[in-house]
Automatic annotation (TrEMBL), chains A, B, C, D:
Species for this entry: Hoyosella altamirensis
Identification of the protein by name: Inositol 2-dehydrogenase
Function comment: Involved in the oxidation of myo-inositol (MI) to 2-keto-myo-inositol (2KMI or 2-inosose).
Lineage of the organism: Bacteria, Bacillati, Actinomycetota, Actinomycetes, Mycobacteriales
Residue span, GFO/IDH/MocA-like oxidoreductase domain: 132-247
Catalysed reactions, as listed in the record: myo-inositol + NAD(+) = scyllo-inosose + NADH + H(+)
Key words, A-Z: NAD, Oxidoreductase
Superkingdom, taxonomy of origin: Bacteria
Length: 342, 342, 342, 342
């Protein structure tokens, strides 16, 4: 069986998904391309043998030649599109954010739970990265005892002009939010975003860097530096402190050179594609495989679920409030057990 | 277009190719499985939707539902199978060795050249590895000046009991032979295999480690340690010394931990799948893509060619003679320019 | 000229100073040993040709055969001993803490300032460590722009049974306090000590690890993990985030090995002597040289001064209050400019 | 007791020794400075309180205010000066080479052996380097089994114009000769110096790099790259391959930075003082301590002995012949056991 996929939204991320599904992922055909900009949709579809453009995303979701949906549209339209997928009973891989506010994310969690089968996967692709999987495995093994703290860092060379302080929380820290939850296997109880003196290269008014303190349910603490105007490269590094040791991932190595004027070293990973390109591929491949085998298991996901999207939204919401109030803010989340199937 | 592939030989390597073509490579379907052991062929084919077993490899090659062939059979039958692919005009990805002797390898080079289109690709998968590609790119860029020396190391934890000293040359050093040729872009002129005091863990009579000196056409020198009873892991490391700097690949890093009793470090890559798994995937994907686009280009390869298989055979042949005679042995190769199209 | 030194207090640290002054530092002779335990003093003095025991520390300070004093006695007696050195006009290298409370530290700063010459050096030996000096030089050079954040970590394998939560602040974090001040060249404005879930290997009631947030005068932020029951080794690591880059020190490398079962790595520095042994030596050597040249310069120090001891005391005092109150505590310090000569 | 030292030859190396003995080494006073250039001797002596110039090296050796001698004069005068030290019964630390030919080195070995006490130490300072000591300790421990091979590299940024191919053997490879002997604890049986295509930045006629193969008595093999026109820095790296693992020293780490344009790394050690400065200090300190304690032990050395100087001379002599003849050359050495006390 080949999975026939509709890709909604073919900006940078969606176009990349469409290309990977076509040229790198086994078992999937992109049959439908949708974008609010038909011209862009056509340009992408032209490069994919057998793909057609459907202008209305809801038509695309219910189309007969569509088995599963990838949502890479702007956040504000996610809610309706994901719900349409649920209604159509079609598996969906939805880019973060699940929705743009906590309440609607929770509604989606409930809607999927009510359906009784897992259809929604969230695009937190780091969970498919070799190093993160190794670090998670180390946590699960208990080999170094229980984890106690995480030190996380997320650095971008630059951001577009419209990027504001809250977007650092919702677009960058959100990944560290999911890492903390994924690596420690528990929810975040409170967020406090500290504001170091801003980088002089940051646009006026942009609070960059930000230094977040997450307090986990168990009392563990996680700190996360987000710094988006470094001018250097894409740097993502995580350190876990355990009861009997520590472990780090995200060191830049590979080709190491020594050259004039007396320096040794390598290159820092320039962007997220170089750092997580393989994770994106593996995310899609495993999702396609899950969609194929869904008939047997009743679940069409192999990765983070709607709940993970909801939890990230709740934490980021608290983060933005902390940014505004300069105080520690409790995360407001419903009890997962209260929604059977979530 | 989906490329329909016959896989000849489904031992460990062929079975892995069949699995990757089916589950990880876009644009290819495995339609035919062949093995001298029909039972093994059936077991593999059963796991691949749409694949059937063909007992005679030559029937498989000419089958109508076969566009291209992967040869992973034992070396002694390669010659006839590759020639049959040429005769049938079908692109072939042939695992090393191209053939088991220098003369027949040369015959194949000539046969393909006479055909006027490139159909044969050799499975030197390291050329698809990110780090090797980066090191080759550094050589080509001229950024550090011309390369002067290479220090290469190839270590295996263990080898089967039947592995003899000549096999260290033909199965292990052969990879370093291709690396030297790939990285420096020139042929090897002579080989001298030095014999350090053997490892006490090596089987009696096995010359392990071996230390090879390759003299390149340009006078550059390459040394290559092959050590196959280390008991540790699969370790492959290369250092290039340039006129204005040096560069190393193959350092083991990724997750780094610190733990009792006071040690820091990571794990050494346990086997070739972990080290080169992605290179195998990319080799297949790029080959499948080349086969697809061959009608336009007339060439159905994207990687090492028959000549590279011949050159490796010639160098390894000299290597085995050096091992026997304990002297430096000139490599005997025809002039590539004498075979237009090779 | 050879500097004749009295060593007050010959526990582990003082004994080490006496040994280094005798056997590794040029230009100094230990002439007087003092300890509250005469037996211990005699044992140490016996191993040093020409050294005698003086039972009363104040007699030792004023002795004719004493040019300069090293104070390695318990903290509570520092105040009177340092003041006696000032009164006698003798240069003194005082181990941290300068005194055990903020007020008396300030009194000493004032007393030395009133004297008009610099006689007091504090034993913050990290300032003499190659790596810290390189990181400080990088800050001073401005090459990577202004520093924005520091991430500091301080880990000990174990602590004695009497070690309590406040001692983690005063004995461990105090080093990070001085590092933050030394590396950034400014004072600490507030301290907030966060309390992650304690290590299960920590004694009941011990808040370990602690995670401190220092806000600097300029608005820069520094975080410092102190973790003293890791069971691993002595690990001290610092990362500075600049406007145009970042830099790390304290990576454990040196001899790197690969061995069964498939691991690579080295040993983590077991203790402070291995990590900072050379810094201790260089601290003493540079102090001895400064004492020698003091007659010309009028200043007998080459390193952290009384003010640095006072500042550390003030910050640690705030730290202990933060630990108790679980809030951010402003550091209460006088204006340095108000004490000319401090 | 303070050891009164005469320093013969105060070029760069001797001046450094005089400075360290005066300002960094405990227990030694430089009392006499000698140099063929009196002016240079005066300049050095003026900076050392209590030092005087003696114009004739043989007068310096026998002077009453000289307990021990450091020889840092040009190689051709070493023989007579070392013999004069033996005759005067004075401990001597002699910079490499012991003498400039194999025969006279052997004569010195015999003369010292005849004396019945150890007076001669050779300045192979790497034996005092922490990393080399750790690697030697790893060999001795047997933890990874017996050593099988060493891969050694020695790179200099540049050499003076008069530096010829033979000097690469005698001034650079000589250190690797001693390392091979020190690390493996056995003699070198043959030397073969291979000649890679020279660096285009090397002076015309200079064979640079050179690649030496040492065959040890036990059949172990050692390869050593010497490359003296790299333009980069001072790079010395050693890897030992054992029966059950491998180990590397000489990796450049310390401060690691990440900065634009997207690179990470540190600086390569610029020169031998930065790399081995502490080894030079420790060599002197331990030698001074050995000279002090010699009365009890009858031996006044703590480091490489005259025999080590002789062995290095014999190996380098073979190396130069290999360079000329382009063949493997057996090392011609007497049996150490034939000289009791050597």
């Amino acid at each position: 069986m080949t999975v026939k996929v509709a890709v909604l939204g073919v900006g940078m991320m969606g176009a990349n998904h469409a290309d990977q599904l076509t040229n790198l992922v086994a078992g999937a055909d992109v049959t439908v391309i949708n974008d609010f900009d038909d011209e862009r949709a056509n340009a992408i579809a032209d490069a994919i043998p057998g793909a057609r453009v459907v202008s209305d995303p809801f038509d695309a979701i219910v189309a007969e030649d569509v088995d599963a949906v990838v949502i890479a549209t702007p956040g504000p339209v996610h809610e309706k599109q994901v719900l349409a997928c649920l209604e159509a009973g079609k598996p969906v891989l939805c880019e973060k954010p699940l929705t743009t506010d906590v309440e609607s994310s929770l509604e989606i969690v409930k809607a999927e739970a009510a359906l009784g089968k897992q259809l929604i996967q969230i695009g937190f692709m780091r969970r498919f990265d070799d190093e993160y999987m190794k670090l998670r495995a180390l946590v699960e093994s208990g080999e170094l005892g229980a984890p106690i703290m995480l030190h996380l860092a997320h650095r971008n060379p630059a951001v577009p002009d419209h990027f504001d302080s809250a977007m650092i929380v919702k677009d960058c820290l959100v990944h560290e939010v999911d890492c903390a939850r994924f690596l420690l296997g528990e929810e975040i109880k409170s967020v406090h975003i500290l504001k170091p003196r801003p980088n002089s290269n940051a646009r006026d008014g942009l609070q960059d860097p930000q230094f977040a303190i997450f307090e986990m349910e168990s009392g563990r603490m996680v700190d996360a530096e987000a710094f988006v105007t470094t001018g250097i490269a894409y740097e993502v590094r995580s350190e876990a402190i355990f009861e009997r040791g520590s472990a780090q991932i995200g060191l830049d190595v590979n080709l190491v050179r020594k050259s004039a004027p007396g320096i040794w070293g390598g290159t820092v990973t320039p962007g997220f594609k170089e750092r997580f390109g393989r994770a994106y591929h593996d995310q899609l491949q495993r999702w396609v495989n899950a969609v194929k085998s869904g008939d047997e298991t009743g679940n069409y996901v192999d990765g983070p679920r709607a709940w993970d999207g909801y939890a990230a939204a709740a934490v980021c919401d608290a983060g933005v409030r902390s940014l505004t109030t300069s105080t520690r803010v409790e995360v407001d989340m419903v009890d997962r057990a209260s929604i059977p199937g979530a």
